[in-house]
Amino acid sequence: MRDPFDGELLTQYESVYVLLEELGKLKAKLDKKQRNVKIWRRLSNVVLSVGTGARINKIATEKIRVQVDKLRIRISSVLETVEFAVEREEDEVATILATQEIKKIVDGLTDKIKEVGQHAAMFSGLIALGRLVFLKHIRTLPSNSVS
Q1: What is the pLDDT of residues 15-59, one digit of tens each?
Q2: Helix, strand, or coil here: 80?
Q3: What is the Cα gyration radius of the chain?
């Protein structure tokens, strides 16, 4: 009787075994690339979240800067009116008119300062909310999926 494990069967077994080893190496390479893709996907999500937060911060800062510039203009107007009143100190009517004008401007200035404060508080809250969302996003990522 002939040995069933010699000749052609043994040759085919060895070639299949070599193919399986090659497939194992390719699988290891693909697994490594897949891990890298997962890491890059997470990193891009983080960068996207941070970029969004930075854009919100920039918009908020710009809006507050515009409002502060408007306040500077109003304060300059108050100072000009005060200078006018001081120069016309001997003219009682001009001084009274200048004082009334200063009161009006100060009232408007007070309202504008409150508005700037409200905007600053609102944007500060949005920034804090963005940070919380970002941290929550990081916390919910599975810790074992990168390994």
Answers
A1: 888 999 999 999 999 999 888 888 888 777 777 787 777 787 788
A2: helix
A3: 37
